[in-house]
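look at this one:
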Amino acid sequence: MGTCKELLTWGSMLLLTGVSLACSSARVRAEGPPAAPCLLESTSAAPAEPTPPQPTAPAHAHAHDHHHHHAHGDASDGHAADAEGAKPVVVDHQRLTAYEHRGNELVGIATPSLGAREHEVWRSRVAVGSSTPLHVHGSEEIFVFLRGRGRARIGDETVEFEAPATVIAPAGLPHQFFNTGDEPTEAIVIVRVGSQITDAEGAPLELPWRR
């Protein structure tokens, strides 16, 4: 009996030892052999080249705004140059000269001599039963009727109007206005400064109220 117990005891110990060795071998295969010590760990690595800074979106936006500002600045410089030396002007109508022309009255209320640079403005009064002569403008002519009633022949068309009304005669078209009402017409007339005006025959008209 004693011999059998001893054999069982030695058998159990050998079995446990085999299991332990098998586990150790499996762990070695899974983890691999221990890494060899690195002989270069104490060597200092050369510093990396610095990466050049990249432009950011705000910088690009700033550059765009800067260019945009210059582009607009160039356009505004022209306006500034045109306005250089210009001053506000007040014209007293009581001191202006009225000119009679075929029973009609005209007064220049904004002309080059009065300080106008781009547009001439006249005050026109056409008597009852009267009309303007047939004539042609080198620029658009705008009539703002404040009083009266009439008929306008412009090119091949005839239009009727009654104040308050605006009539626009395109440049280059012969036109003529007739007072068909029972009171004088009163209108503000606007043309381009220095634009040519000719009669029906094409002869230039020198009109004193344009000065």
Remarks:
- The helical segments are 2-31, 57-83.
- The chain is about 25% helix and 30% strand.
